Amino acid sequence: MTKIWEPSFIYNLDPNSKNYPIALIILNQPIPEYQSRLFENLWSKADVILCADGGANRLYDYLKASNRQTELLPNYVIGDLDSIRDDVVEFYQSQGVNPIKIDDQYSTDFTKCFKHIEELNQHDIYNIVMLGGLNGRFDHSISQVNNLYDLKDHRYPLYIISDSSLTFLLDKGEHELNFNPNYEGPTCGLLPLGFPVKSLTTEGLVWNLENHESKMGGMVSTSNLLQENKVKVITSDPICWTIELK
C-alpha cells in the first residue's frame, strides 16, 4: 500500500488546501525573522501549541521584538524547566499559562510534550510539528532525528522544521510525496541516518535511484532536486526525507 504525503498542509493557508489536526511544539532554538511567514502560517494552522521548556524563551523574544507577546500565547509550556527564564515564567503565568514541570531526566523536553499530547487526545490523530529541531547543537539535532525513528510506529506523524528545511521519516515501503512549489523545493535529499538502506528507488527527481544501496560511509543522496512536484520513493528500510523550504 502506497503512503501518500502532502506536507504543505502544515503551513498552506489556502482555504482549498487539506486540513488535518496539528500540534506545534516550539523547541529551544531562535525563531529567525526571515522565517516569519512560515512561523505565522504554522501558528494559524496549529490546533494546539506547546513550548518545550526554553522554547518559551524563543517564542517570547520573537514576539517581544514586535510588541506582540500578549497576542500569541501557547496552550502549554512543558519540561524540566531548567532553561526557561524567570521573567518568561512570570509573564506566561500572568497570562494564565502556567508552566508544567516534569522531573524526568530519562526523557527530553520534546518527549515530555509528546506524552502530554497523548494524554490530552485519545481520538484525533495529530500531525506533530517540531519547530527548530535541527538547529543549534549537533547532539540536540541527532536527538530529534532519533525521535523520528523511535516514534515511527506511532499513530502521530512527525515533522521537523528547521531554519531552511522540512524533514520527516519514510518507513520501509512505497511512498508518494506531493509538494507545493510555493513552499517547498527544489533541493531535497534522502538520508539513511538510522540504518543502511539495502534498496532505494525513486521517481520524479533529477538524479533518480534504482534499487540502489544507501548508507552512511557509502552513497547518500544529498543536494538532489525535484524534477516534478510528485515524487515516488520505494525503500527497503526507514530513511529520512528532507526538502528545502522557501
TrEMBL record:
This is Thiamine pyrophosphokinase. One of its GO terms (molecular function) is kinase activity. Gene3D superfamilies: Thiamin pyrophosphokinase, catalytic domain (3.40.50.10240). Keywords: ATP-binding, Kinase, Nucleotide-binding, Transferase. It is an enzyme of class 2 (transferase). Pathway: Cofactor biosynthesis; thiamine diphosphate biosynthesis; thiamine diphosphate from thiamine: step 1/1. It catalyses: thiamine + ATP = thiamine diphosphate + AMP + H(+). Its EC number is 2.7.6.2. It comes from Conidiobolus coronatus (strain ATCC 28846 / CBS 209.66 / NRRL 28638). The keyword NAD does not apply. The keyword Ubl conjugation does not apply.
